[in-house]
Amino acid sequence: MRKLQQGFTLIELVVVITILGILAAFAIPRFTALDKQARITAITSLGGSLRSASALAHAEYLAVGTNPSTILMDGQSVTLANGYPDVAGLPLTMQDLTGFTPTATTTAITYSKDGATDPANCAVTYTVSGAVGQPATVSAPVTSGC
Hints:
By secondary structure, this protein is α+β, with helices and mostly antiparallel strands.
């Protein structure tokens, strides 16, 4: 009596591996595009958060009155310039800056997204208020290098 053997032939395995390779060739570029889109979204969201933090600090500045040079936010002493957070005070107004690298000058701080192909072109910049009555500004996010 002859036994039937069950299993896959070598040709069947090669065909399946070839098909999986072709599918992977189409799927991988789509996943890298999602990674870039996630970095663009993160840097755009950070820009909105910087605007909100600056406005919240300015509102606290106005509520305190008497032209304070610092305000208290979440137990942190935030230093101000013309009623808006300065370069040293701005990071204290934010809850979490993980995933971003700051580069500061005396009048501005730029946050670049970690993991970007060109971090200098995947960034947003906060510029300190230059005069009383002039708000601090947040640049439009640069996303060409994300």
